Amino acid sequence: MATKSVVLYPGLGVGHLTPMLQLAKLVVQHGVAVTVALVKPQAADEPAASSFSAVVARAAAANPSITFHVLPPPAAAADNAPRRGWLDHLRLMDAPLRDFLRSLPSVHALVLDMFCSGSIDVAAELGIPAYFFYASGASFLAVFLSLPSVVANMETSFAELGDTPLRLPVAPPFKATDLPKVILDNDEGTKAILRMSERIAESNGILVNTFEPLEARAVRALRDGLCIPDRPTPPVYCVGPLVTEGGDKKHECLEWLDTQPDNSVVFLSFGSMGTFSKKQLQEIAVGLEKSGQRFLWVVRSPPSSDEEQKIGDPLPGEPDLDALLPEGFLERTRDQGLVVKSWAPQVEVLGHRATGAFMTHCGWNSTLEGIMAGLPLLCWPLYAEQRLNKVFIVEEMKLGVVLRGYDEEVVKAEEVEAKVKWVMDSEGGRAIQEHAAAEKNKAVQALNGGGSSHAAFVEFLNNL
Fold first, then answer.
1. Per-residue model confidence (pLDDT) at position 45
2. Long-range contacts of residues 257-262, Cβ cutoff 8 Å, at least 24 apart
3. Is 422:401 a contact under the CB 8 Å cutoff?
4. Which pTM does this prediction carry?
5. Of 4-18, 31-45, 401-415, which one has max mean pLDDT?
6. What Cα–Cα distance (Å) separates residue 381 from each residue in 261, 363, 384?
7. Residue 335: Cβ-neighbour burial (10 angstroms; 0-12, 13-18, 19+)
């Protein structure tokens, strides 16, 4: 019998490629051939294009059993063309994707990122079953699939609701302002996002990077058809948590952690696009110093403007720590903490015996990495679906606590100090630590043979 073949299409952004790559590794382990079709950033985004090439080269070198194919740019995209919106760019990439799929001898499934939802038409044209890999959790998926019907029955916009609680049967109550900004804007971008939700509902199935015990309420809602009232919900396969494995390079911060006591360090990292103003960085610094708790803090350069960073935007350069942080801070805290510039090996740090808590932007990849490390989460959402993830983490999963002021100009130093102390040295903090450790064990069990995620993935493959 011929080997089954699957093509994965992760769209744009390392944040979407990373979990899709973990899915590719899982598919290969089950004897299925995998090709990852990649979209190169536009020529106008030279820094992003250079970074993309380096990421692809590393991924290909580390995964020789996976085929990586960079799609050619669409015919309409000359090298000197002005930059298009990334959704427009993905739409134009349907033609190169179609040509590539036609060139393959057989494709048993096309697995799409949510932002590539329009490519479901390419799959239909070629008679290929289309699935979506949803890199966020089941709770956000349940809300996302509910939005078209919710909007159709609303007499106002989400933005006009402000902080009014929304009560949907698929999630705990949340403020309308916790929805992603693109949904609140009530413009053409909003319509495009809602259309994505409708297209996902047309697929052959949805693979979700989660495990059932973590989001049982949302999984039940999805399978009971509560999210899409006017048509059957596609099969939902909870196949996670799929997270990046740690590397074998020794970073200076890991050597520093080796010298610290067990469960004593708060790790602060806010994702590849998580940046703060100089004023906010100084508030964090003061709060950490006054807390007296050990810390490892990844600091990025402030954004060049107040605009929310978008997929494809160039990343800021190396930060000048002496200019950004309070005078004398690094010297005064040299025995208390360590500040690293721009990047740290997050999975290795989270899994280190000295790390005791994780202050995070609540991006889903980072959330799962924190859960797999068994750590309590200090929630500081910044953009995209992170505010809703914060609701699920704090209210539903009971794995974290929120930093007040995340939705204001700055989170005050006093709040940073108080929450760091609380999670590291209070009865309530210890309760979350114990719950986080238990949740880690459930995650491991889900992935093992006979576990819920393993069984769901086998079911998906058997349906190809």
1. 64
2. 257/296, 257/349, 257/352, 257/354, 257/355, 258/354, 260/294, 260/354, 261/294, 261/354, 262/353, 262/354, 262/356
3. yes
4. 0.94
5. 401-415
6. 29, 8, 9
7. exposed
